[in-house]
Amino acid sequence: MIAAGTLASRVTGLLRTIVLVAAIGAIGRASDAFATANQLPNSIYALISAGVLTGVIVPQVVRVSAQRDEGHDFLAKLLTLGTVLMAAATVTAVVSAPALIRLFAPQYTPDQHELATFFAYWCIPQLFFYGMFALIGEILNAKRIFAPYAWAPIVNNMVSIIGFLVFIRLFGADVNDVDQWTPVMVAVLAGTATFGIIAQTGVLLLLWRRTGIPLRFDFRWRGMGLRQMQKLALWTFLITLIGQLVGILQQRTISGASGTGASVFVWQNAWLVYMVPYSVIVLAIGTPYFTRLSEHAAAGKNAEVKRDIAQSIRMLGLFVFVALAAVAAAALPASRIFSNNTADAVAVAPVLISYLISLLPMAVLFIIQRAFYAYGDARTPFLFTAIQAVIIVALTLLVRYTVPVEQLTAAVALAQSLGGIVQVIVATALLQRKLGPLDLGSTWRALGRFALMAIPAGAAGVWLFFLLGGTSSWMMQDKIWGALGSLVIAATCAIVYLLLLALFRAPELQIARDMLRRRKP
User: Fold this and answer.
1) Residue 262 pairs with which residues in a beta bridge?
2) pLDDT: which is higher, 167 or 283
3) N or C: which end of the chain has fewer CB within 10 A?
């Protein structure tokens, strides 16, 4: 259910981005201005709440769920506190919009800065609704109600698609000249993006009754255990702070060359494509495992925790490798989906490939990091995140002054991937120090088998792409053809991968079959 909902939301999210690119272009000063402004609520939200929700809230909700009232009083207080904090943060961010744009993109020209600021006034209110959506969604996850959180973003995407089509109808397509924009155009485009976030939060509220938790405000925060939560939240806050500081450096590096070969919008769109396999596979498998990890850790069942870690990594690897092969092979037609011409697609593809290098390490890190959170340890994740940040900062500064501007966006993405690879190696070593040997030998061997089978699968996809004409093929002629071509290549890779798994009788294939068979009604 999580995989289906996440896949549907990601596919509609891709459609949303296709329409957005058609409206404002893929590479240009106006599209970068919108990309910077629309990223602000995400960045601020991640800084003030994302780490707290993941590292603190879920384990706390699992713990209080065993109480006589199933933790209803605690959750009412938690929702009230979250509402107050998010409202205050949103108001502060709206007032600070010009300064925030200057922080993330100091080298924008005055007219580009002004346009980005106007966009920000409309986009930043998303912050409040992002926070409420995540808070309610994580409570649902902790209560083992996974589907609503996965499916609700579809509403956001559909609202945005309709709004962006209205924009194209009213003002035309590929509006990428800063001087073309009027206050009404800004309101239609950025207002649509914000209204979509409001709509998805509203859907989650409608489904809240399934928890059986009364939806009420409770300002009696004393006795919630805020002191313990504060200690955990401090470290998760520092983790997200490091991530945002790194992100600011990356965005400043790219925005400094906006319109001259580098593009913030391309950087974000490549990340969006990367997140399709990551979110569909990692969240679908990893989210239930995190709830299970929290339960076993709370009960002191370390052996079960180790088994959960090994099983989750093996199942993630089974699916991640075929996704890696498919997306890498289809990088060019997939990039064409988010570009208005073949030349732009060729510029986007290296950025996507640079991100894909870290797909498997980030999947493993998802499990390793949440194992620490399940034990209430947010300090150790801070340590290995700090190591990652140092590496990314050093590499980003290096490429900033040594890499040609045409390759700058891809180089920044590659720096992030290399930092992530080192991060997961350090994180795994620290977890073994905490829990003792994790007995992952068979897991690493399984990942090696998957890698060997993914190589010919990816090669088959690349061969098919060039057989059909490469960059001159029908796949590169338009966005729709790019999407169809990507599906054909992905299907080819998947068929070869599955045949190889069956040929060599990989035991994980039977496990996956059994899992699917048990899910059938």
Assistant:
1) 258
2) 167
3) C
